[in-house]
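My current task is to audit a protein record that another person submitted. I need someone to confirm that the token line plausibly describes how this chain folds. Take the sequence as given and treat only the tokens as open to question. This is what I was given:
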Amino acid sequence: MGTTAADPAVLLTDLRVLVLAGGLSYERDVSLRSGRRVLDALRAVGVEAELRDADVALLPSLVADPPDAVVIALHGATGEDGSLRGVLDLCNVPYVGCDARSSRLAWDKPSAKAVLREAGIPTPDWVALPHDRFSELGAVAVLDRIVDRLGLPLMVKPAQGGSGLGAAVVRDGPALPAAMVGCFAYDSTALVERYLPGTDVAVSVIDLGEGPQALPAVEIVPRNGVYDYAARYTAGRTTWHTPARLDTEVAEAVATVAVAAHTALGLRDLSRVDLIVDADHQPHVLGVNVAPGMTETSLLPLAAQAASLDFGRMIGTLVSRAVAGAT
């Protein structure tokens, strides 16, 4: 990895940074935990940082007293669908992370998977099914056809969403309708994809000035076999191995695919690429997150620690690069 020293033209101690966290999504609590950790990390390296929610007071504040930069620790639609980034662009406030267009693309899983597939990056076969079409065409007939086409087991998850909310593994046909209903509680469109057994890994991609590079992969071993919301954020529900227990050649392939996915989606600064390594040791991209969690059990901080990167200096470097890029 490259140095985490900030751009000498942008001194961290001279910056005032706004950390945005909270929001109104299902992931509000996780976002607040991420935001507080980022806040503490920035303050530890001498940055004047403030934690703010994304509410009606935000825009007037940005206009009246714009910060030098924003770190987006908002999860769910508010932080990841591109809309907030578009508002920050309107206010000429620099921020860490990808632009609005790339954020929208990565947020919508079917669209992102289509881009990855076009770029030759492996991702499981899928079908995206809006709730209205599901009802209009007849639930039973549609589900039967999905099973015929994709086989079993299947992974059902919201087309737009994160933290494992609304996601379920379906191992037999009779369980599929309930999984669809659970998914539609979180999004109007369900993504149904072929479930690939294998090793779950997450690769964080960071650009500290030398181009995007993969941090050590984190292997995810949930106690109940499914990396759902409880497994992500409840102590004792999941074991993480950093670096992942992969052969050197496989680890290199995973890193290469992760950086390729980050690049294909037009991302910048940081992302987290979720993958499955199948029985033939081939990596497949499951999704890409443009606002990775920063909590005590989140994967990007674990990967940074494995790479011997100081978390505060790493975030500070991304902030300084955002400020330098806006001048």
User: Anything to note?
Assistant: The chain has 13 helices and 13 strands. The chain has three domains: 8-97+318-325, 105-121+197-290, 126-194. The first strand starts at residue 16 and ends at 20.
